[in-house]
Amino acid sequence: MELLPLQLTSWEKWLELHPDTLVLSNDTPYQEWYTNISLGSSSLGPEFVASIVYWDTRLTHNRLVLGVTVDQAFRAYPLDRVAASGGVVNDILADRPVVVVVDDQSVFSIAFSREINGQVLNFERTGADSLQLVDKETGSIWNLEGLAIDGPLEGESLSFVTSFITEWYGWSAYHPETEIYAIANP
Predict the structure, then answer these.
(1) DSSP 3-state assignment of 165?
(2) How far apart are the first and last CA of the chain?
(3) Is residue 166 a contact partner of residue 67, using CB atoms and an 8 Å limit?
(4) Cβ(76)–Cβ(59) under 8 Å?
């Protein structure tokens, strides 16, 4: 089954990318079925903790990470570490160039391949408050869906790399051999 990108973001950021979005009203007889989901919970029940076969204490259990998979290689990118390094990490995983993007304001994070048409690109944000990226090689501008929206590569798309936001305990339980991203020059 093909995995598709999941974008966890704020409503405001979603509307920037998709201004014609329609929303199903929550004003229904089933409103009590809808709950607020909170990522990064501070505690887990004892029965749940006992059910986890592999418990990795390299990070706190509720630390939010972007779990990335490339060719059976696994790396966890703590969202706060990536945000501290400017919100963009150009990295290599399983000999493949990847870019990880984090917006700590809206809990958005995703990974893409940095290779397009045989060229490896290096990315940075277009500005401190912007979620758009620019590649250093061509100066093309990219949105958070991996689409070049301006510049020489306009219309090209980056390939999604299997990635999703999760709490550390869940990622490490399923991927005990995972690496943890560390800032090269803190």
Answers:
(1) strand
(2) 39
(3) yes
(4) yes
Report how far apart, in Å, the C-alpha atoms of 183 and of each of 21, 87, 90 are. Answer: 37, 12, 11
pTM above 0.90, yes or no: no
Decide: residue 90, CB within 10 A, 0-12 exposed, 13-18 middle, 19+ buried: middle
Q: What's the pLDDT tens digit per position in 120-165? A: 999 999 886 777 899 999 999 999 889 999 999 999 999 999 999 9
Where does the chain have alpha helices with state H?
A: 11-17, 46-51, 79-84, 168-174
Burial pattern 58-76, b for ≥16 Cβ within 10 A else e, equals: ebebbbbbbbbbbeeebbb
Q: How far is CA 101 from the centre of its chain?
A: 6
Nearest 5 degrees, angle CA 27-CA 33-CA 36? Answer: 90
DSSP 8-state assignment for residue 79: H
**How far, rounded to the nearest angstrom, does the alpha carbon of residue 165 sit from its chain's CA centroid?**
6
Question: CA dist 100 to 1, 17, 76, Å?
Answer: 23, 19, 11
How many C-beta atoms lie closer than 10 Å to residue 36's C-beta? 4
